[in-house]
Amino acid sequence: MKILNDTDIARIRGEFPILNTVAKGHPLVYLDNANTSQKPQCVINALKDYYERYNANIYRGLYELSELATAAYEGARHRAAQFLNAADDCEIIFVKGTTEAINLVAQSYARPLLKPGDEVLITALEHHSNIVPWQIVCQQTGATLRVAPINLQGEVIQDAYEKCLSEKTKIVAMGHISNALGTINPIAAMITKAHAVGAVTVIDGAQAAPHTALDVQALNCDFYAFSSHKIYGPTGIGVLYGKKALLDAMPPYQGGGEMIKSVTFEKTIYQDLPLKFEAGTQHIEGAIGLKVALDYVTQIGFEAIHQHEHELLIYATQLAHEHKVRIIGEAKEKASILSFTLDNIHAHDVGTILSHYGVAVRAGHHCAMPVMEFFQVPATLRASFAFYNTKAEIDTLFNALQKVREIFK
Length: 409
Description:
The chain is α/β, with parallel strands linked by helices. It is built from 14 helices and 17 strands.
């Protein structure tokens, strides 16, 4: 297995221009990767190259620029299918991000299906984007939203999850990795249990895609979504994977140009997959940049990424215990997120002071207000690590936290 040594990390950091910048007079320590990741030069160059050399709309042009843009866009779809190990490129739908992907499934798949008496099951760990769309569709259809509980470690209680499943359960929607706590769900086993009662599974993979190799066929999930901007690609683009049979049976989510074969005032005939779900001009350069980002992380290797990020998490957790900060969520299986509170100081105050030392962490409810309510905290500080982060940066974080304590004495 490849291991990222200090020389590798230094080289990688040199490939991310923003990491060499200064914030508030200090070297930037960027620890907000669960919110959005920074972009390597190769991704930045890919966007610049598109605008300078072959900026044109896709599919519609009979000239070289359009042909080049179309080939690059469809090449990105093929790369995303490879990344997820989808059975067919047509199972990859480009969307704005994970949020739009989940809304698409809720409205296009769930809304025509659900009726009073049916149930949608989520977990108490979910991001708002995997709560609110299901609340809306349940209100629209009369279905019931159920929630599988978590324990004080921030783990879904598996016995309780299984008890929530029944013949009434039509959809199970859950995150692969919690954005608020870093908990890694036993997603394969949970999908198997959902399928045992005939439920369709929708997986929020926004936090998983940057940290672990994915195989939707091995997972046997029905839908899987992730966002480009969290995996070192551009903002405004993401991927929805869906099994072909399900996508084929679903009506379009939006209507407009390019998703049609023919239109009359009496009838419209829709395009085949995947274009049926891609109305209007797409985020062409975003897809191109995403392809380059997927190539980049694949080249580094997820085993190496996981090992390095896991070492950072262990190191940060040890320092948190030494500095007597309260860690929120200590699941046995965690990805690279340390969510914590400092004494009785509000997270927003701590985050503001940290920023004056060049340290960028997230402070707030992380779009997971039910998680905060469960742990009885208004907000947490969240340090989230990427493969370009270092133990020295974590030292800087905890040194700055000591400064916060001194200020509030």
